[in-house]
């Protein structure tokens, strides 16, 4: 057997953490895990309830619109009137420009509109 140039001695585990300390730490960790699971379960349940109620509302709206003959947007009298007066026909270039707007404001434009001086 080869002799090592140094002597290694491992300290007993009780020197690092006592049995009572180990139980305290594991008990606190278990409480955090259980509390976290309860909180996550609560929010997950609320989310599920919200999604379910939203689905029910959308299905109910669809039923109402189908009863009134407005199952598709092109059947809606207001939309029909829009296309007759402004938008020409669905997916037309003019309709696209009228219905899809893009707003980009620069800070200096907002400041000017408010009567302020922009120092940007």
Automatic annotation (TrEMBL):
<dbReference type="GO" id="GO:0009055">
    <property type="term" value="F:electron transfer activity"/>
</dbReference>
<protein>
    <submittedName>
        <fullName>Iron hydrogenase</fullName>
    </submittedName>
</protein>
<keyword id="KW-0812">Transmembrane</keyword>
<feature type="domain" description="Iron hydrogenase small subunit">
    <location>
        <begin position="45"/>
        <end position="103"/>
    </location>
</feature>
<feature type="transmembrane region" description="Helical">
    <location>
        <begin position="21"/>
        <end position="44"/>
    </location>
</feature>
<dbReference type="InterPro" id="IPR003149">
    <property type="entry name" value="Fe_hydrogenase_ssu"/>
</dbReference>
<dbReference type="GO" id="GO:0051536">
    <property type="term" value="F:iron-sulfur cluster binding"/>
</dbReference>
<keyword id="KW-1133">Transmembrane helix</keyword>
<dbReference type="GO" id="GO:0005506">
    <property type="term" value="F:iron ion binding"/>
</dbReference>
<dbReference type="GO" id="GO:0042597">
    <property type="term" value="C:periplasmic space"/>
</dbReference>
<dbReference type="Pfam" id="PF02256">
    <property type="entry name" value="Fe_hyd_SSU"/>
</dbReference>
<dbReference type="GO" id="GO:0008901">
    <property type="term" value="F:ferredoxin hydrogenase activity"/>
</dbReference>
<dbReference type="InterPro" id="IPR008953">
    <property type="entry name" value="Fe_hydrogenase_HydB"/>
</dbReference>
<keyword id="KW-0472">Membrane</keyword>
<dbReference type="InterPro" id="IPR036991">
    <property type="entry name" value="Fe_hydrogenase_ssu_sf"/>
</dbReference>
């Amino acid at each position: 057997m080869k002799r090592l140039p140094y002597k290694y001695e491992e300290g007993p585990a009780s020197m690092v953490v006592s049995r009572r300390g180990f139980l305290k730490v594991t008990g606190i960790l278990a409480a955090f895990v259980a509390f976290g699971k309860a909180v996550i379960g609560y929010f997950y349940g609320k989310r599920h309830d919200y999604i379910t109620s939203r689905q029910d509302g959308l299905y109910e709206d669809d039923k109402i619109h189908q009863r009134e003959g407005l199952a598709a947007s092109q059947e809606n009298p207001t939309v029909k009137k829009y296309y007759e007066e402004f938008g020409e026909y669905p997916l037309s270039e003019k309709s696209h420009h009228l219905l899809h707007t893009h707003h980009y404001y620069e800070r200096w434009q907002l400041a000017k509109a408010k009567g302020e001086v922009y120092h940007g």
